[in-house]
Amino acid sequence: MANNQRYSNALHITVTAPRDVLSGEPVQVGQINGVAQTSAKSGEKVTIWLDASWDIEVTGALATEGLPVYITSAGKLDASATGNKPWGVALSTKTAAAAPAEVVPLGYATPAAPAA
């Protein structure tokens, strides 16, 4: 049996906080998307969960379940792709006002293919 395994499923991991984060906030580090379980200052280690669904504030309308949700450079969730990066999927609907929505993070996202 291999003895160099770090995590059995790698769904609850520790990463370096890309900014100051509070417990319950969305986090993106490269292609890793999750929700902070602890608060951390930028550059400190923070535990994030890449699975489960979460009630997190999203700006913009989510007309149907299953729509993509994006993260802004400030670490906030948004329904618009413009200037933002993919972060997760909506499991609920909501109007355009900033309000909580049930979302699930992408976990480990596959990088987009380079443009031809």
Multimerization status: single chain
**SS elements, strand count:** 10
Low-confidence stretches: none
Amino-to-carboxy terminus distance: 43 Å
Share of residues in helices: under 10%
By secondary-structure content and strand pairing, the structural class works out as mainly beta
Count of helices? 0
Count of discrete domains: 1
- In percent, how much strand structure appears in the residues? 35-45%
**What is the C-alpha radius of gyration, as a whole number of Å?**
15 Å
SSE succession: EEEEEEEEEE
* Anisotropy-based shape: globular
Summarize the main sheet.
Answer: 5 strands, antiparallel
Average the pLDDT over all residues and give the rounded result.
94
Kindly describe this structure.
It is built from no helices and ten strands. By secondary structure, the chain is mainly beta. The protein has one domain (12-105). The strands form two sheets. Strands 1, 2, 3, 4 and 10 form a five-stranded antiparallel sheet that branches. A hairpin with a 2-residue loop joins β2 and β3 (32-36). The chain is globular. The protein starts with 11 loop residues before the first strand and ends in an 8-residue tail after the last strand. 22% of the residues are buried. The model has no long low-confidence stretch (mean pLDDT 94).
